[in-house]
Structures are given as structure tokens and as C-alpha cells.
Amino acid sequence: MSATSTFDQAIALARTERAAVHHAELDASWGFGPRIHGGLLMALAGHALSLDLREESGHADPISLSAYFLSAAQSGKAVVSTQVLRRGRSHTSAMASLAQDGQERMRILATFGNLDDQPSAAPVQVFTAPPRMPSPEKCVGTEAAPPELLKEAPLLERLDLRLDPQCVGWALGAPSGQSWMQGWLRFPDDREPDPLMLLLAVDCLPPVSLDLGVSGWAPTLELTAHIRARPAPGWLRLKHSTVLVGGGYMEEDAEIWDSEGRLVAQSRQLARVGRA
Amino acid sequence: MSATSTFDQAIALARTERAAVHHAELDASWGFGPRIHGGLLMALAGHALSLDLREESGHADPISLSAYFLSAAQSGKAVVSTQVLRRGRSHTSAMASLAQDGQERMRILATFGNLDDQPSAAPVQVFTAPPRMPSPEKCVGTEAAPPELLKEAPLLERLDLRLDPQCVGWALGAPSGQSWMQGWLRFPDDREPDPLMLLLAVDCLPPVSLDLGVSGWAPTLELTAHIRARPAPGWLRLKHSTVLVGGGYMEEDAEIWDSEGRLVAQSRQLARVGRA
């Protein structure tokens, strides 16, 4: 992990005089719509939890992390605090909070453990498959995005995100009506994936509601990520899907696959859609 | 809602001298394996949140609720406390904790709102379908369960749960290898479904790992439920599925459909499986 990658800069933390309280700086270049991207906030809080729980119990890897988004984060200073709820042999459960100027932006519950400490004899049964799509070179990069979108979502320049050409109808004014979206992701500076990147990656694709013809951002109320394995170096494959858009809400499920074809993360979020 | 139904008795709360702190009594008859059933704990904490947030802001319905299970709840006294994190126009976000003798059993983050206050103009798009299965009369009730299971899981007598005959191979020593399970659910005393019952219902089917040949209980680390609509009276249809059992963990997704064929709740949990 390069200490100078833009992602590692974005999730950098400075210790304070108080244990389990960290200072961070949210950079405007990680903005998405009117706020700092929620995935970046999860990675930042995940980083604070990883540092504190490694010291506490050696449990440095997120296994499950649930984030509730309370108010829109802006660029500028932020404070991340953590609190252990329960220490166990295999897991430590904890809470984290991200605040700016005393306003809480995000509250997190999480269980941390050690991804290398999984019973090798445990069964593996997989009932899904990696997304099938053209190679990254044949997919649609963010350089093809409309300039007004890039202006609203500078985050897109922090990511090398390539959408399956089947999933870009919405951007051309012709939503496909598909309930799923997929693409490739890596960092432009080749910073390799790790569990903290996965916390960002679960929320990097455009909302599937766009390709269903429901316009507008889809602000996340809640997102829970499960990290299932440490990802191999290389491109990640992302797939999002929904089974129900209704009543002003959408559930959106994500799968993240690594370059060795393993399902390394899953997430589900509830977002607001189709409201004024 | 009948005040004397066994479910309403089980989630009854007594006010204490402190605001937002409630007393409850966990009855052994809601036991499942070595602990009080997690779904009942979620319904109980959801009840406390509903009472407190109704007073606070009129937001009495769970929209999203994430529960982290910290230690096994036993029968006996419990204390449920709640704390508002953010009041908004449409939603109130809050935290809840359930403890026994000073030991925390479960911590919850949740967003509450009003299920009747959804924009009628909002689009509804559904990409899944209710479970197809024989009528409740032709499904397999818990009276068919082995007596040793009923002894270990008295909860089953609190529920009128009827499994699709396709999903009972595990109980006969011949797991089907299917990655899903489905059935019907109502309360034996005809107490009708509401959002609090849905918080119980998302964790009422046997773990799908059993029908995959992975024996043993599947203790939940984390479960997030999204309540999508107020359920109609009558039977609920439940479907659980997994896409990945591996590394000692299983993700399990639930859909709950009401008697009018609407998807009223979704959940995802991470459980431990196949460990000693």
C-alpha cells in the first residue's frame, strides 16, 4: 500500500491527544453531487476502526460494517471517533462516528476480525458468478461522461471506472430499463485493492435507478457491507442490482469480484429515489 | 393489534423513571438454540424505538434497522435504551441497545419514518416475484419437526410456520443442496402482521445452510432489515437465499411478501457457519 496514493491521502488520519479520536481532512475532489462520497466516508471510518481495533485486539479487518448517513458531509475538517462494544476471540464489535463542526455526518456499527484467520476446512459454496462483460479496454471510461456530470462528481476522476457498454443508456438519454449495472474499477495510480478500498468500491457505480429511468441522485440512508475475502491485486469487477424501487426508496445490492474471480465483498443499501 | 397476543406480550415494555429506558422480560419460550431468538430482540428494540420516536417526531415506523449481536440473550429481565441521533423532516435516525445485567446483547442503528407517508407518484418497479409454493395446508408445519428440535427451539411453537415441502430435505437427513428456503408464516393466535412482526419474520426460517448440508446453528453477527410497506392482514410468505457460504460465514437474504402480493420487507444478514 503506497502511502502517497490519492486514496491513502484521502483516508489519512492524525492522532489527537484523546485515544480513539482522529482528525481527517475531506478533500473536495472526492465529492459526488452535493456531498462528499459516502463510500469514501466508510473507508475513512473503516481505517480509524482498523487502526484502533488492531491495537485493541489484533482484529484489523472489517467483516461487516453498517453505515447510517445522517447529514451531508462537506469538504474540510472532520473528526472520526471509535468505541469498542465487545471484544471476542474471533471478532471485535465497535461503533464509529464521523462529525464536522459538531454535526454528525455518519454513524457506524461494525464487526472486525482477521480475514486470514478463516477455517480452511470451512465449506465454500457459491451461487452467483462474476459479471460477464467486455475487457476494461472495451468498456466506457469516465472520460466519456458528460462534462457537467464530471463537474458535479469530481470523485469520478479519482477512479478508473469502466462501465459495461450495456449499462450506459441512461447517460445517452435512453435508459435501458435494466435493473442492474456493472463495470470495472481500479485506482488510476494503481494503488492495489484491500478491504478499505472495498468499503469505497461498494458504492462507486452510478445508481441503477438511472438506467430504470428514475432521474436524480439516490442519497443513501443506510449501507451495510460484508467483506468476504482479502482481494487480489488488479481490477475489481462490480455489479449492482435492485429488486424493488418503490415508495420513494430503492434497495441496491452490490457484489465485488477480484481479479482471481472470487466474490470479495457484498453490500446492500437503502437509498431515496424519485422524491423531490 | 391485540394487547394479549403472545407476540405483544413478548415485546411489552415498562417505562422506567428515565426517558428512553425501558424494562422488558425475555421469555424462555422464544428461545432458539442456546439463546433468545434474534428476531424477537429486534422486534423488542424496534418497539422501544417506535414508542420513543413517535413521541419525539411522529416517526413510528422502522424503515431500516441494523442489529449487531454482541452476546447471547438469555431468558429473564432486559433493559432497552434508545437515543436519537438525528431528527429530519421525513426520517429520524436513532440508536438502541439491549442489555441484561449490564452485559450488552445487541446494538442497533435505525432510521424510522412513516410508511403511510410515501409519495404516491413515486415509481414502483419490482424485479422479483412472490414465492410459488403449495398452500399453507399442503406445506410442512412445525408439528412435523423432530421433538428434539422443538425442545431446542421452543420459538417454533410461537409461530405457525409452514415450509415448502421442497425445503425440508435437511430435516429428513437428505439436504437438497438448494441455496434457498421458503414458507408461510403467521402467529397461531392470528395476531396480524405489522412492521414489528416483520422484524421478527426476517429471521424465522431455518438457515439455508442446513439444506446445503452445513450442519449446526448459524448465529447471526449482523442483520439489516428494510421495511418497504405496511403488511396486509393474513399469511406472510418468506423466502431466504444465499449466494456465498465460505470462510466460516454465510450471507442470507430474506424477502417477505404479504397476502396482497407486495414485497413488504427485505433483509440481509451475515451469520457464522461451519465453525466449531
Automatic annotation (TrEMBL), chains A, B:
Domain of life: Bacteria
SUPFAM superfamilies tied to this protein: Thioesterase/thiol ester dehydrase-isomerase (SSF54637)
InterPro entries xref list: ACOT8-like_C (IPR049450), Acyl-CoA_hotdog (IPR042171), HotDog_dom_sf (IPR029069), Sec_Metab_Biosynth-Assoc (IPR052389), TesB_ACOT8-like_N (IPR049449)
Limits of the Acyl-CoA thioesterase-like C-terminal domain: 136-273
Domain Acyl-CoA thioesterase-like N-terminal HotDog intervals: 27-113
Coiled-coil segments: none
Protein's name in the database: Acyl-CoA thioesterase
Organism encoding this protein: Nonomuraea africana
Lineage, broadest ranks: Bacteria, Bacillati, Actinomycetota, Actinomycetes, Streptosporangiales
